[in-house]
Design brief:
Layout: H1 2-8, E1 14-19, E2 23-29, E3 37-43, E4 60-65, H2 80-123, H3 138-147
Parallel strand pairs: 1-4
Antiparallel strand pairs: 2-3
């Protein structure tokens, strides 16, 4: 299935979003006579992992949003960062919509042109066969073509 998808992936537009602050902090207590903790940071989704693969830029758009993993999927109208993130998401979805409309119109145009060509070819009469009679010369064939008279076969 992956191979079948790879053959079609360039036909689609992809937008991926990832959080610039997409990490988890783990505090581990140190078991010693020093009262300290060790903090470890792990990326939940890195910018490389947010990409679908090595696709051209006109197929895939990876958008960095401000926030962590759980922050980038909800938007508060009271938070300026969320409003900015929402604007990025909406603009990218609108771009996908516009691309889909253009491609749809292009496909409709191709289909109607194809149908018009098919219907015009169906209405065209097949040319009459001009039988070649033994002993005909070029002049007599041309005369028959001009006058539309054909010998009965």
């Amino acid at each position: 299935m992956i191979i079948q998808w790879r053959q079609q992936i360039l036909k689609y537009q992809i937008v991926s979003f990832w959080g610039s602050e997409d990490s988890v902090s783990l505090k581990l207590p140190v078991m010693s006579h020093y009262p300290a903790d060790i903090s470890l940071f792990f990326k939940i989704v890195s910018d490389k992992s947010a990409k679908f693969g090595t696709l051209p830029g006109d197929v895939e758009n990876v958008v960095k949003l401000k926030g962590g993993h759980s922050d980038i999927c909800r938007f508060s109208p009271k938070d300026e960062v969320d409003v900015d993130n929402l604007e990025l998401v909406v603009c990218n979805i609108m771009d996908l919509y516009d691309i889909a409309l253009r491609e749809s119109e292009s496909e409709k145009s191709k289909l109607s042109t194809k149908q018009a060509l098919q219907s015009s070819s169906e209405s065209v009469q097949a040319p009459r066969k001009n039988p070649i009679v033994a002993g005909d010369d070029l002049e007599s064939r041309l005369e028959r073509l001009r006058g539309g008279s054909f010998p009965a076969s």
